[in-house]
């Protein structure tokens, strides 16, 4: 997710400022310009960025800061507060209550992920013991009802819709009435996706809202919408009483800054974010931990929540008891590894720890430039992994050795399954001789021995089987 890059850029700007011996107005301006650039590149609306910059300058009056105060901390806190302010409209959204009927209507642009999000929202509450139900009032897109029906059936959530009826208002009303009678406590109405320019569809959305009288209207927004986010969100807000925002596709390559702008446009908080296509890839959104993670300041409460989520509460005392008795078995190790895997993408988990931005891990892991691993990074890895810096350096040496070998293999065509002869043609003795350590090549019998060996490998059925099946 590119928002992580935004966090990385902001953290770097603060870090650079921290490196300066004296923090004067020039240094502060440079830092703020850097942050402004990063926010604009991430598609945050220009006016919001400009306001933020002015506010920080107002708060951080360098002359007023008494000597001895930690200026960096004050500036970092001001940036943190401003980002939080941008994402927090200051009033919480309506929160449905379990056991008491609430109608929640979903609106948004076409393809924003509305239908998927409706089911995720229902599923999330169902897991917590609610009785949700889904109503498909999208008569505009062919296949919308089928999609909702499929999702709802998979999650075992009751649904209502029609293949025949073309009036969304009628369907919405019937669905809501029916589920009220069935004592559902969360009735979710999915509406058709629309565009700011489509006046008729906006009118239809308004009518559905008037007829079903939702307790909450949720605006679903794709995180990749970019600079258009503010205007689009604003147009929705003018037609219906948007009370909350859900940002989808936060797992993708979206810049995500539009999400920040949408909050400002609707003056409504983000309540959840969608992080994948699956039903449970859905997270509650909290402003402070989010900004904290964005700035690499960590999120301890989120980290502890994850731990509680993956190690069931009832198993925790038992586990502690076993460990305190010195009873560390292979099964415990296996289960703990499984639990760690359940915590989700490792980058996401690490971003909850202070000093880690989720951008850092992929950058380091996916870079083929060993120079990126400078001394301070290696020191950090050594500290974090409880290893000696020497061991990290050895690992990097090993990485460089392997990278060199692989660079010699450049141009090697990887055969498809069932094309072993292509592999033997490509992976000729010349290539192999470059890869093998000289000692080993000598033992095999030099170039001649290697050619022989490769011929044997090529004709051996077992070897081909091992390598993915041979030509028939
Ligand atoms: N990666 C990812 N994909 C998502 C997420 N949420 C939804 N999608 C995908 O986005 C696509 C569009 O989602 P829909 O739910 O059909 O969108 P919609 O807004 O209901 O579409 P309309 O009915 O045309 O308005 C689907 O392929 C979803 O699987 C998410 O959080 N992450």
From TrEMBL:
GO MF terms here are: 7S RNA binding; endoplasmic reticulum signal peptide binding; GTP binding; GTPase activity
Provide GO CC annotations from the record. cytosol; endoplasmic reticulum; signal recognition particle, endoplasmic reticulum targeting
Entry keyword GTP-binding: yes
Q: Where in the cell is it found?
A: Cytoplasm; Endoplasmic reticulum
Q: Which parts of the sequence belong to the SRP54-type proteins GTP-binding domain?
A: 269-282
Q: What is the first-listed, main subcellular location in coarse terms?
A: cytoplasm
Q: Does the keyword Mitochondrion apply?
A: no
The record, for SUPFAM superfamilies, names: Domain of the SRP/SRP receptor G-proteins, P-loop containing nucleoside triphosphate hydrolases, Signal peptide-binding domain
| Entry-linked Pfam families | SRP54, SRP54_N, SRP_SPB
Per its record, the protein catalyses: GTP + H2O = GDP + phosphate + H(+)
One GO biological-process annotation of the entry reads: SRP-dependent cotranslational protein targeting to membrane, translocation
What InterPro entries does the database record attribute to this sequence?
AAA+_ATPase (IPR003593), P-loop_NTPase (IPR027417), Signal_recog_part_SRP54_M_sf (IPR036891), Signal_recog_particl_SRP54_hlx (IPR013822), Signal_recog_particle_SRP54_M (IPR004125), SRP/SRP_N (IPR036225), SRP54 (IPR022941), SRP54_euk (IPR006325)
From what superkingdom does this record's organism come?
Eukaryota
Q: Which NCBIfam families match?
A: SRP54_euk
How does it associate, per the subunit comment? Answer: Component of a signal recognition particle (SRP) complex that consists of a 7SL RNA molecule of 300 nucleotides and six protein subunits: SRP72, SRP68, SRP54, SRP19, SRP14 and SRP9.
Q: Which family does it belong to?
A: Belongs to the GTP-binding SRP family. SRP54 subfamily.
The written remark on domains in the entry is: The NG domain, also named G domain, is a special guanosine triphosphatase (GTPase) domain, which binds GTP and forms a guanosine 5'-triphosphate (GTP)-dependent complex with a homologous NG domain in the SRP receptor subunit SRPRA. The two NG domains undergo cooperative rearrangements upon their assembly, which culminate in the reciprocal activation of the GTPase activity of one another. SRP receptor compaction upon binding with cargo-loaded SRP and GTPase rearrangement drive SRP-mediated cotranslational protein translocation into the ER.
Give the protein's function. Component of the signal recognition particle (SRP) complex, a ribonucleoprotein complex that mediates the cotranslational targeting of secretory and membrane proteins to the endoplasmic reticulum (ER). As part of the SRP complex, associates with the SRP receptor (SR) component SRPRA to target secretory proteins to the endoplasmic reticulum membrane. Binds to the signal sequence of presecretory proteins when they emerge from the ribosomes. Displays basal GTPase activity, and stimulates reciprocal GTPase activation of the SR subunit SRPRA.
This chain's protein is named Signal recognition particle 54 kDa protein
What is the protein's species of origin?
Answer: Hibiscus syriacus (Rose of Sharon)
């Amino acid at each position: 997710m590119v928002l992580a890059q935004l966090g990385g850029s902001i953290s770097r700007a603060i870090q650079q400022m921290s490196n300066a011996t004296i923090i004067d107005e020039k240094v502060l301006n440079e830092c703020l310009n850097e942050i402004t650039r990063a926010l604009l590149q991430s598609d945050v609306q220009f006016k919001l960025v400009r306001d933020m910059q002015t506010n920080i300058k107002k708060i951080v009056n360098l002359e007023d800061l008494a000597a001895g105060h930690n200026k960096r901390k004050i500036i970092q806190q001001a940036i943190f507060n401003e980002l939080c302010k941008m994402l927090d409209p200051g009033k919480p959204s309506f929160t449905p209550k379990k056991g008491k009927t609430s109608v929640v209507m979903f609106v948004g642009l076409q393809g924003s992920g509305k239908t998927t999000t409706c089911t995720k929202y229902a599923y999330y509450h169902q897991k917590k013991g609610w009785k949700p139900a889904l109503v498909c009032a999208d008569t505009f897109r062919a296949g919308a009802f089928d999609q909702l029906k499929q999702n709802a059936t998979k999650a075992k959530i009751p649904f209502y819709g029609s293949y025949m009826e073309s009036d969304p208002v009628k369907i919405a009303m019937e669905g809501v009435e029916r589920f009220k009678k069935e004592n559902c406590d969360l009735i979710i109405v999915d509406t058709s996706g629309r565009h700011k320019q489509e006046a008729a569809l906006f009118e239809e959305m308004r009518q559905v809202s008037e007829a079903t009288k939702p307790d909450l209207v949720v605006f679903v927004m794709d995180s990749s919408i970019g600079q258009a986010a503010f205007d689009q969100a604003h147009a929705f807000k003018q037609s219906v009483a948007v009370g909350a925002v859900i940002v989808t596709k936060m797992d993708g390559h979206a810049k995500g800054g539009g999400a920040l702008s949408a909050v400002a446009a609707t003056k409504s908080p983000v309540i959840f974010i969608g992080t994948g296509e699956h039903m449970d890839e859905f997270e509650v959104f909290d402003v402070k931990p989010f900004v904290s993670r964005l700035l690499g300041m960590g999120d301890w409460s989120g980290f502890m929540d994850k731990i509680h989520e993956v190690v069931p509460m009832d198993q925790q005392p038992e586990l502690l008891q076993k460990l305190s008795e010195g009873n560390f078995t292979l099964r415990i190790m296996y289960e703990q590894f499984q639990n760690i895997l359940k915590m989700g993408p490792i980058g996401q988990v690490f971003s909850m720890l202070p000093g880690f931005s989720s951008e850092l891990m992929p950058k380091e892991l996916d870079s083929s430039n060993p120079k990126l691993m400078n001394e301070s990074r290696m020191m950090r890895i050594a500290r974090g992994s409880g290893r000696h810096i020497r061991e990290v350096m050895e690992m990097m040496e090993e990485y460089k050795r392997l990278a060199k070998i692989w660079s010699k293999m450049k141009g090697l065509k990887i055969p498809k399954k069932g094309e072993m002869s292509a592999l033997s043609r490509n992976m000729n003795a010349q290539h192999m001789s470059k890869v093998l350590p000289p000692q080993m090549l000598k033992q095999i019998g030099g170039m001649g021995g290697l050619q022989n060996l490769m011929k044997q490998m090529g004709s051996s059925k077992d070897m081909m089987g091992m390598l993915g099946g041979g030509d028939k």
